[in-house]
Design a protein that fits this description.
single chain; binds fe (ii) ion; 12 strands; alpha/beta; Purple Acid Phosphatase, chain A, domain 2; 6-stranded mixed β-sheet
């Protein structure tokens, strides 16, 4: 079976390309389940209930988030009430949202999804490694396919999480830096791993934001809003092949879908 994981969706350009390309891509690649990180989907920061619903309607089965999770507070009701969206599991227990979700793939298999946050250059949170152990104990044994989005800054931390969970989860895929890494691999225990899958949104940008604005703010220290950019919109993600019985990862490859390809996917679906 196949899982598609989509990296941090940034702003309207990111949401739009996912909406356009996903139905066709799901069919073309025989994808059974789609997980997407939506932490930047509302104007670059946070997610709204409307965007959450739009992503689900487009074919996303489960939404993960990150440090921008609560920027739009209306999402809290969704986090508390829906079973296909998770908060970073090592946030305080008092923080709204669920620590893991079990969603059903198109082939009928159950898949557990959780996310963790790193601690380097990020808000202090509980230890992601011990939290991961705790979550793996909570997920029913019958759910063999287990996916971890590790939302962290440091590649070393991400590799450590991959090794820590190797053989115990199907995949550890990194998010947050918005820059993809080329270290995708199946670890010795059968866990699909990549340090960062990159972002989904305008790539003619600095991490999805307008280059001129970020540059001005960096040089002058003036308070300049980092508007979401518009050029060269692409989906970044990974496709993971999974042995549904054991839950082991069998293959992982990076994917990019640009605007032209999104248009083709849309056209093919209409034919
Ligand atoms: Fe992000
Ligand atoms: Fe982030």
């Amino acid at each position: 079976m196949r899982i598609l994981f989509i990296g941090d969706i940034v702003g309207k350009p990111g949401v739009d390309i996912v909406t356009r390309a996903l139905p066709g891509f799901r069919r073309q690649e025989s994808i059974d389940l789609v997980i997407a990180n939506g932490e930047n989907s509302d104007n670059g920061s946070g997610i709204t209930p409307a965007i959450y619903r739009k992503l689900i309607a487009a074919g996303v089965d489960c939404v993960t988030l990150g440090d921008h999770i609560y920027r739009k507070k209306d999402i809290i009701t969704i986090l508390e009430n829906q079973d296909n969206i998770v908060k970073p599991a090592n946030y305080p227990p008092e923080a709204p949202g669920k620590t893991w979700a079990v969603v059903r793939a198109e082939n009928g298999r159950e898949v557990a999804v959780f996310s963790l946050m790193g601690r380097v250059f990020m808000k202090p949170v509980d230890c992601p490694f011990t939290k991961a152990d705790q979550i793996l104990n909570e997920i029913p044994d019958s759910v063999k396919i287990r996916f971890c989005d590790f939302h962290a800054e440091a590649t070393s931390d991400k590799q450590l999480m991959g090794r820590h969970l190797d053989g115990r989860v199907t995949a550890v895929c990194g998010t947050h830096t918005h820059i993809p890494t080329a270290d995708e691999q199946i670890l010795p225990g059968g866990t699909a791993f990549i340090s960062d899958v990159g972002m989904t949104g305008p790539h003619e940008s600095i991490l999805g934001r307008r280059i001129d604005k970020v540059l001005q703010a960096t040089i002058t220290f003036r308070p300049i809003p980092f508007d979401v950019a518009t050029g060269d919109v692409q989906i970044s993600g990974v496709v993971i092949d999974v042995d549904p019985k054991s839950g082991k990862g069998q293959g992982i490859r990076r994917i990019k879908i640009n605007e032209k390809q999104a248009e083709q996917l849309e056209d093919e679906l209409e034919d």
